[in-house]
Design a protein that fits this description.
Radius of gyration: 28 Å
Helix content: 25-40%
Shape: rod-shaped
Number of domains: 1
């Protein structure tokens, strides 16, 4: 009786071919996943900018009367009186590089946060027409670009703003 103690050349070639096929499919799937993830990451960053900046701008603009708005190129300043203490709030938005910064001051306290991190060059502008404040923001991340307009109706003027 004759016993086999190893693999034949055909069995070895079949096993090698199957391994190569699986490695090729895995590599292709991994490449496709990474390429898609990168593009979706760019889209997510742009949408995150839109959500964050819209949230902060809407919050501050709805507090400020039309008389408390100052606009200069690349800068939007909103001022309003605190309804309980009559102290003056001020929020200034301006672009610094790819960031949209919000600097908020109240009495002696000042804080600055980045409300958007992927702005295109000259990606922030504002205009005022009566009580309608229009803010245009353009985000750019990789090959993904998106512009959006935020239109906010300002409240009526309710007396002088405190200095």
């Amino acid at each position: 009786m004759h016993e086999d103690s190893g693999l034949t050349a055909v069995e070895l070639l079949v096993a090698l071919a199957i391994t190569a096929l699986l490695a090729s499919l895995t590599g292709t799937a991994l490449h496709s996943f990474l390429a898609t993830t990168g593009k979706e990451g760019e889209q997510l960053a742009v949408l995150s900018d839109q959500w964050s900046s819209s949230r902060w701008l809407s919050r501050d603009a709805q507090m400020a009367p039309a008389a408390g708005v100052e606009i200069s190129p690349g800068t939007l300043t909103l001022r309003w009186n605190d309804p309980t203490t009559s102290g003056l709030h001020q929020s200034m938005y301006h672009q610094s590089g790819g960031n949209l910064l919000r600097t908020h001051s109240y009495e002696s306290l000042t804080s600055t946060i980045s409300v958007a991190r992927s702005l295109a060059p000259s990606g922030f502008s504002a205009s005022l027409n009566g009580k309608l404040l229009t803010v245009v923001i353009t985000s750019l991340r990789g090959s993904t670009s998106r512009s959006w307009n935020e239109i906010i109706y300002l409240r009526s003027h309710d007396g002088e703003l405190n200095p």
